[in-house]
């Protein structure tokens, strides 16, 4: 990091300005307060005043001192740890960050561009093999677009990704190391990532390329000079963005109010998604006891629940008491941590337009029964349904697309249970990973029938793991039907 770094700047949002007004305010204030910074800069962060504005998913992240303030991920055993910032609408841009792996091993640490979800992104990473790899990542599928050897991979290096149109190019310390054509979404946020590694990050900056439509929506005030250690490239001062909120057409109270709407019990999956009858921002988790019929209104996170990150610690939009029923509800973006069931619960015709960390989490006791009947989910980068408690979950007449896993029995919860899942009449489109995952050593079972997989000729339908209660990553031990744990026949699965 440079010995003569630009001034530290604290972020504040520009209120009451459209895109053009915000851009003008940024240009004027940057010119007056920090002449050395580029007016075109979309985002800057040197972490001298913390890490507000970053959303976390996995790992242990904290601002620490390493010559100057840096953002460090310290949990080297995390399979995938990442933080995100910026706007989902950013298109053609260059993102740069200084990266120093602390413990690399066989893992990786790097920077991400066009992150459209927690595990869908382009990333340029330093690897334990002594390389820098430019990768296209979609769930568990990783495509290497190019690589080059890097000397001293555990020292500070400046990594940069330029994303312009379908072309993605990676640079290390100003030298181009890889380039390729990508097929991922053409828009998305920036990120800092590790996998089975710990690392420090500093001096993150984002600048537009070519015809980028990205617009800065925040600016900064002057503050003391940052002191830093030596590094090849200086970065401009930091500027943050403000995420736009969806239009509010109604409000949601933290207490559920039942609505009388007749709802036929679903009997088959449908490709049609319901049209929202209205929008209801949710600023605090809605507690549901009894029955809440949303009448196909769209509920979305706002205020404290308004982040669009994938953080495991997020609160849900709905928290269902034992025996509660939630039906005819659309969860829009941001969906926070979706739905939590404290005990037995029933979800009827519940739709997730863009899954946050999980669509629903089931936390009841050993005798709890949960039912998901009808509805659907899109855009789950990892799990759709997370089973942390005990009991049996039935998922039927459901459709899911663009997802990592439909169901996962918690592999490393501090309290473990024997769990069962029944999956019936489900259409799964474009899965990135597997359908269900269970823990064989705890006696879990998965019973599946009438499953249709669209867009793939093969898929791990039922994956068996050795789970644990220590927090470590569970070990995969097998896949496929066995009549005891994974209960289905090949004829129960149709590939289209």
UniProtKB/TrEMBL annotation:
The chain positions of domain 3-keto-alpha-glucoside-1,2-lyase/3-keto-2-hydroxy-glucal hydratase read 41-206
Spell out the molecular function terms from Gene Ontology. hydrolase activity; pectate lyase activity
What catalytic activity is recorded?
A: Eliminative cleavage of (1->4)-alpha-D-galacturonan to give oligosaccharides with 4-deoxy-alpha-D-galact-4-enuronosyl groups at their non-reducing ends
Q: Which PROSITE patterns match?
A: TAT (PS51318)
- Cofactors per UniProt? Ca(2+)
Which InterPro entries does the entry mention? Answer: AL/BT2_dom, ConA-like_dom_sf, Pectate_lyase_PlyH/PlyE-like, Pectin_lyas_fold, Pectin_lyase_fold/virulence, TAT_signal
Q: What class of enzyme is it?
A: lyase
Location within or outside the cell: Secreted
EC number(s) per entry: 4.2.2.2
SUPFAM superfamilies listed in its UniProt record: Concanavalin A-like lectins/glucanases, Pectin lyase-like
Positions of region (Disordered)? 213-276
Q: Which UniProt keywords apply?
A: Calcium, Lyase, Secreted, Signal
Query: Which branch of life, at top level?
Result: Bacteria
GO terms of biological process kind? pectin catabolic process
Any one GO CC term of this protein is: extracellular region
Q: Which family does it belong to?
A: Belongs to the polysaccharide lyase 3 family.
- This chain belongs to which protein, by name? pectate lyase
């Amino acid at each position: 990091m440079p010995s003569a770094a630009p001034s530290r700047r604290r972020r504040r949002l520009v209120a009451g300005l459209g895109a053009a007004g915000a851009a003008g305010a940024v240009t004027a204030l940057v010119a007056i307060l920090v002449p050395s910074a580029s007016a075109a800069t979309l985002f800057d962060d040197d972490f001298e005043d913390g890490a507000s504005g970053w959303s976390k998913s996995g790992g242990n992240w904290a601002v620490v001192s390493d010559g100057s303030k840096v953002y460090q991920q310290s949990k080297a055993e995390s399979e995938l740890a990442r933080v995100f910032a910026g706007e989902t609408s950013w298109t053609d841009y260059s993102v740069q960050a200084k990266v120093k792996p602390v413990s690399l091993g066989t893992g990786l640490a790097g920077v991400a561009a066009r992150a459209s979800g927690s595990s869908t992104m382009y990333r340029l990473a330093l690897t334990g093999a002594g390389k820098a790899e430019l990768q296209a990542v979609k769930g568990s599928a990783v495509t290497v677009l190019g690589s080059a050897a890097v000397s001293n991979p555990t020292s500070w290096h400046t990594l940069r990704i330029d994303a312009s149109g379908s072309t993605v190019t990676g640079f290390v310390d100003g030298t181009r190391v890889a380039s390729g054509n990508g097929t991922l979404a053409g828009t998305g946020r920036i990120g800092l990532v590790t996998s089975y590694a710990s690392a420090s990050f500093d001096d993150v900056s984002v600048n537009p390329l070519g015809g980028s439509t990205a617009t800065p929506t925040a600016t900064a005030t002057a503050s003391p000079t940052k002191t830093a250690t030596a590094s090849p490239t200086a970065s401009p001062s930091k500027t943050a963005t403000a995420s736009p909120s969806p239009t509010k057409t109604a409000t949601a109270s933290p207490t559920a109010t039942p609505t009388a709407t007749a709802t036929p019990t679903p009997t088959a999956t449908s490709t049609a998604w319901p049209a929202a009858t209205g929008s209801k921002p949710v600023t605090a988790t809605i507690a549901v006891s009894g029955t809440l019929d949303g009448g196909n209104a769209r509920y979305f996170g706002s205020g404290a629940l308004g982040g669009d990150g994938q953080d495991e610690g997020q609160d849900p939009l709905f928290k269902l008491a034992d025996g509660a029923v939630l039906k005819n509800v659309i969860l829009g973006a941001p969906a926070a941590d979706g739905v939590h069931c404290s005990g037995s619960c029933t979800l009827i015709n519940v739709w997730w337009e863009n899954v946050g960390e999980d669509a629903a989490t089931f936390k009841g006791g050993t005798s709890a029964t949960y039912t998901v009947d009808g509805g659907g989910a899109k855009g789950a980068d990892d799990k759709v349904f997370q089973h942390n408690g005990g009991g049996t979950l039935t998922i039927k007449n459901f459709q899911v697309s663009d997802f990592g896993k439909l169901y996962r029995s918690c592999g490393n919860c501090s309290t473990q249970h024997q769990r069962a899942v029944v999956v019936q009449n489900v259409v799964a489109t474009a899965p990135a990973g597997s359908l269900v995952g269970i823990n064989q050593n705890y006696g879990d079972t998965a019973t599946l029938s009438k499953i249709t997989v669209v867009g793939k000729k093969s898929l791990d339908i039922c994956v068996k793991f050795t789970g644990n209660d220590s927090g470590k990553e569970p070990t995969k031990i097998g896949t496929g039907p066995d009549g005891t744990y994974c209960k289905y026949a090949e004829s129960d699965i149709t590939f289209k």
